[in-house]
Write a structure and sequence with these properties.
With 176 residues, this protein is an alpha+beta fold. Helix content is 53%, strand content 18%. It contains five helices and three strands, in the order H-H-E-E-H-H-H-E. Strands 1-2-3 form a three-stranded antiparallel β-sheet. Helix 4 runs antiparallel to helix 5. It is elongated.
């Protein structure tokens, strides 16, 4: 009988050690999976595994094909200054608020610049019409400025069609 009790106690000891061993193994496996998953996610977002954009892809989307500020076929990008604009902003309290805006347009080349210069009155009209409807709260924060930039880009591309303006670059934004 004593031998049976000792044997059962030894079996229980082995089971406890096996439990500790399986917990350690499980911890090692979970740690390894988390480590590999984190490393894989980092590699994906950094562009090593086909995720994210490489610098060449982002330059290609912007029209800059890695030629030091040149557009397609080595042609330099052209910049066109829009006349400075001062507009009244809409206000609910009746207090006059003003927006002063200085903008340049980025184009693929000189031919596009000439084409947009030819329709400049239309571009200014599109900008003025949109800007007069804005409220101060529409321009708050980086999100407001980004929305303004995208809206102006959309309007200038509509006014200058079929020429495509690459970007609207803010030189000055002043709200009084």
């Amino acid at each position: 009988m004593a031998d049976a009790v000792n044997a059962s106690l030894e079996d229980e000891g082995d089971t406890e050690e096996e439990k500790k061993g399986s917990k350690k193994m499980l911890l090692i496996i979970v740690g390894t999976v988390l480590l590999l998953g984190g490393g894989g996610a980092a590699a994906y977002f950094m562009g090593f595994l086909g995720g994210g954009e490489t610098s060449e892809e982002s330059q290609a989307k912007k029209g800059d094909h890695g030629k030091g500020g040149h557009g397609e076929d080595g042609v330099h990008a052209a910049f066109l200054k829009i006349p400075d604009m001062i507009v009244n902003l809409s206000s609910a309290d009746g207090q006059p608020r003003y927006l002063r805006l200085s903008v340049q347009l980025e184009l693929k080349g000189e031919t596009e610049k000439t084409a947009v210069e030819a329709v400049m009155p239309r571009v200014v009209d599109q900008f003025q019409t949109y800007l007069r409807e804005l409220r101060v709260r529409d321009l708050r924060g980086s999100a407001g400025i980004y929305r303004l930039q995208m809206e102006l880009l959309s309007r200038v591309n509509a006014a200058a069609y079929p020429v495509e303006v690459q970007d609207v670059l803010f030189q000055e934004i002043l709200i009084q």
